[in-house]
């Protein structure tokens, strides 16, 4: 299977280790993974703030870059949701762009979706001997409806103790530009999420979006809690020899 990694802006700029973990994991599972260097932003922040035409341009570019692959895998529920939900709405019906979107969009998957729904695997051979709690980010929960896919993968990681997160479905307060426009509300929501995480006694907070982990992790760090944040891909890529 020829798979393209859609790295996303946040990961490319701030969390390159997540992209490397995805490549390592998928290659371990037998996928031929490519990284199209011409990829850019998916356009989510442009469309969400009213720059629709810029979003159309970026959607067109996305379909050109990722055409021809069997699957496109993103370590981000947020960006995968943008492509799957918003791209069809941006295209003019009957246009060449609409046809390209109809061809590419069904092949775009968030990582846990791809592992469970396409590769049909739950045990990826990972080893991570730590107490972990999982935060289902808003886009992965409400847009992609990932359900228990991420936790099913974590439950099969050897050595990992998965503990439930109280109020797991509550937003962490990041919300992209929401955190910039409403900093006080965002910080209060982040504080609520942090208290729930600390109640679990977990060593590590895991999620499928580094943007949300960055927001929560800032509060955890400022409070000197000692709780680490890790992307799902990095835990799944971990092996006994590396830990």
UniProtKB/TrEMBL annotation:
Domain of life assignment: Bacteria
Name of one Pfam family that matches: CCG
Domain named Cysteine-rich: residues: 3-83, 132-216
PANTHER family per UniProt: LACTATE UTILIZATION PROTEIN A (PTHR30296:SF0), UNCHARACTERIZED PROTEIN YKGE (PTHR30296)
The protein's name in its UniProt record: (Fe-S)-binding protein
UniProt organism field: Nonomuraea antimicrobica
